[in-house]
Each structure stands twice: as structure tokens, then as C-alpha cells.
Amino acid sequence: MDLLLLSAIAKEPLHGYAVVEAIREASDGALDLAEGTVYPALYRLEGAGLLASSWTTVGGRRRRVYRLTRRGRARLERERKEWQAFSSAVQAVTA
Amino acid sequence: MAGILERGAGGDGVIDEYLSQLRRDLGERGVRGAAADRVLAEVRDHLLESHDVERFGPSERIAREIAVQLATTRTIRSTYGAFLALAVTAFGYLALIVYADDRAPNDVLAGKHAVVGLVATLGLLLFPQVAFVSGGLALLRAVRRRGCDALSCEELDVLGRRAAVALAAGGLTAVSMLVWGYEFGYLASAALFGVVAAAPPCLAVPSLAAASSPQAPSVGHAEDVFDDLRLQRLRLRPWFFAGGVAIAAALVALVVDGFVIAGLEFGAILLCFAWLGRPLALRN
Description:
Chain A has one domain: Winged helix-like DNA-binding domain superfamily/Winged helix DNA-binding domain (Arc Repressor Mutant, subunit A). Helices cover 59% and strands 19% of the residues of chain A. Chain A has four helices and three strands. A three-stranded antiparallel β-sheet of chain A has the order 1-3-2. The longest helix of chain A has 25 residues, at 70-94. The two termini of chain A are 25 Å apart. The model of chain A has no long low-confidence stretch (mean pLDDT 90). Chain B is an all-alpha fold. Chain B has eleven helices and no strands. Chain B is elongated, with a radius of gyration of 25 Å. Classes of the chains: A alpha+beta, B mainly alpha. Chains A and B meet through helix 3 and strand 3 of A and helix 3 and helix 5 of B.
């Protein structure tokens, strides 16, 4: 979950719904997150200093936009490497 | 017109109803005020984009997950805050010790009121150590749990109690400093250092109290000091562990301060282990 959220937000700052949509689109609908569960995860990542957020106003309504911090970018790199190593290992066994 | 067309599964009326229910569910979990307002504003924005309340999930589940997350983040953050506050308290305490080192009378019964002066002196010996040990254990647990998804309510209770005991002991250290200063004629300097020592714990209390507001229903086992110190083999013999710590502290006190203080150290550590052992997860 963390890897997905951080990857989506790494490309550009996004609000909650856009994060869900970005993951859904990037995976051609294969990763269809339970939408409400994204927010506790975003709060956790923000609490850990991996994300920062700020309010903007769009179409007259308030919107919280999340962006990656420097620490978040470092974590993303680490998680990507770990995932690639894990994925390669599984592929090597199952191929 | 758009609003009318949207009524149904994700129309404005349905969204408002969902948000009202979510507010109630958050309130029942202790998530209120600015934290709840933020969640509701974000969920409202989300639902006005997706127009699909069902896909968002049951409000009760969302409220529960958010409460667990907030409780975890706030408790760990307030533990760090408490430890920083105690570091300032330690500075004030050490400043008084250094100041009084050459000036303090050797007779602990030489205060204006013998018993009060004696109690204040014992407080100066005991409370800083309780604050240090409890604060250190709280910090150790917070560091170990850093980055965890969500802590169980048992784990949060342990962290909160360790931080609370550390802050209370820090506050009592400051009170002991003031009373000691009054009793032995160093009120001005003791007041100065005492205020330095007392202010940070007082400032840290609201943060710790706010951390306990969200009710985290996540169940799970809370670890104890033997997990913290990676001494699991001693879990079945906690008093053996306490005795070892007491003897080590007493030996140090014997070299530095003499036999009487060493005896006090030994007794105080065992007494604290008996009294605070379970609340601070030092033993089961």
C-alpha cells in the first residue's frame, strides 16, 4: 500500500481521490483500492514525515493536496528496490 | 440541475447523510474538532468527485481506522515531546545541583522544617531517576514502534503511561527543587531553576492528553520491558532483573555518595518496581 501511494504521489502532488484514480489507471483497473482506506494510510505517511499536505480551493471547495517530502522520496527508492528484489525472486522461482 | 441528476447512490443528499454519519462515528471514536473537520472536508471533496458512497466504504470502518491512525501518530509524537521536555527539566535540575554543590548543608535535617527538608531532599534523589527511567523507556518503545501501521490500544496505553509517569516525576522534581530551595535558604536560585524544570513538562501535558482522545479499538498484545531490552529470557524472573538493576545502582551510589544513599537507591528501585512495574510494563 505504501509503495503504491508514494509512487502515485511522486509523479505529481495529488488529492485523495486523484491518488485512487492514478493507481487504478496505472494498473488498468487491476488495483482498485477500497477508497476510504486510502485516507488513514495517507495520514500515517504524513505523520511519518513521508508526505506533506496543504489545502487548496478548487471549484469553491477545499481540497487537501499531498506531496512527497525528501524523506518520502528516499523511502520510495528503498521500497522500490525491495519490491524489485522480491518480485525478481518470485519470478525466478515461478518461471 | 446537476445536483438533481446526482441524487441517488452518490447525490448530494446521500453524501450529506454519509458525512453526518461519519461525523457521528468519528465523534464516538474520540476524533473531534479540527481533526474531524479535516477528515470530513477531504471525504466530502472525494465523494463530490466520485459520486459513489458505496465504493468509499462503511463510515464506521473509516472512522475506526482513522482513530487508530491518529492515536498512534499522536501518542508517538507526544512521547518524543515528553522526552524533549524532560531533557530541559534535567538541565534545570543539573544546574541547581551544580549551583548547590558547594553551598548545600551536609545535614539533610538542617532545613527550616526538618521533615519537609528531608522529604524534599529525598524527592530530589528519587523523582529525577523515575522521570529518567520512565521517559527513557517511553522513548525506547516509541523508537521501536516508529513507522508501525497502527498500534494496539494496549501498546498505546503503555506508551501513554510511561510518558505520563515521566512527566509527573519531572513535575515533582521541580516541586522538590522549590521546596528544597525554600527549606535550605536558596529559594531565588531554586525558583529560577525550578521554573526552568517545571515549564516543559507542563507544556507537554496537553499534547499527551490530546493523544489519548482518539479511541483506538485495535486489539493486540503489549510488549514489556524485556522485549524493549531484548532480555526475554528474564521475563519469567522479573524480580531477579529488578534486583540486579538495584544492586548495580546501589554499587554506583556507594562509590559516589556513600552507604546511606546506596541503601536508599536499592530500596527505592525495588519499591518503584513493585509500585510502577505493571503500569509501565516492567513486568506482567
